[in-house]
Amino acid sequence: MSLVTPEFGLLFWMVVIFGIVFFLLAKFGFPIITDMLDERSARIAKSLKDADEIEARMASWKVEQAQLLEAARKQQSEILRKAAETREQIIAEARDRAREEADRLLKDAKTQIEAEKESALRDVRKEIALLSVEVAEKVLRHELAGEDSQRALLEQLVEESHQARLN
């Protein structure tokens, strides 16, 4: 018996056993293996299909995201424009109010100055009147120092008041 070449009996039984194992594998093993391979290829195909769908969805999401981003930018620019308009309006209103307040204060100041001017003029007139009375009093004292001049003045005043009553 040689180790390299088998004998006919051994070869026969090896072929018979191989046939039985092949038959059993063909009957029971290969269908299971082919089913598993079919399931795996179906899973791979489904995964590829799902990946394509997800990729398509992501592409649509990117488009939607770009649209939302553009809408947000437009809304932001609109908000900034409105804020600028509101700021300008508030500044204009504040200027108008400040101008009105300044005009009112100027008018009040002019009124107060005019009132103080009138008061000062009255005071000056009063002082002038008092000074005039004092000067007239001194002049009259000086002129009416004598009794004759006093009598002449009294007669003149009586005559003027009499004529004033008649008229």
SSE map:
Blueprint (H helix, E strand, L loop, with lengths): L7 H136 L3 H20 L1
Order of helices and strands: HH
Low confidence ranges:
none
In total, the number of strands is 0
pLDDT average, as an integer? 89
Structural class: mainly alpha
Helix content: over 70%
Radius of gyration: 65 Å
> Termini distance?
188 Å
For the biggest sheet, the summary is: none
Give the helix tally: 2
Shape: rod-shaped
Assembly state here?
Answer: single chain
Strand content: under 5%
Keyword list:
single chain; 167 residues; mainly alpha; rod-shaped
Describe the protein in words.
The chain is mostly helical and 167 residues long. The chain is built from two helices and no strands. It has helices at residues 8-143, 147-166. The chain is rod-shaped, with a radius of gyration of 65 Å.
Q: In short, what is this structure?
A:
The chain is mainly alpha-helical. The chain is 93% helix and 0% strand.
